[in-house]
Amino acid sequence: LSVYISDDGGSKMTLYAFMECAQFAKHWIPYCKKHNIVDRSPEVYFGFDTAWFPERDEIKVLA
Known about the structure:
The longest helix has 23 residues, at 12-34. The protein has a domain at 24-62. It contains three helices and no strands. By secondary structure, it is mainly alpha-helical.
């Protein structure tokens, strides 16, 4: 994963957003690998169909 962001002001909000992103990725990437999810965009994964509903409890535990 590589990210480029320009934050010349050193915003605490940007730092917090990166920390939240890293925390989410720590759970999301292994989940995708375990379930062979190719398109790892959460928006796409949860947006197309409701096939993930049986896994809802497992996803909540990760959060």
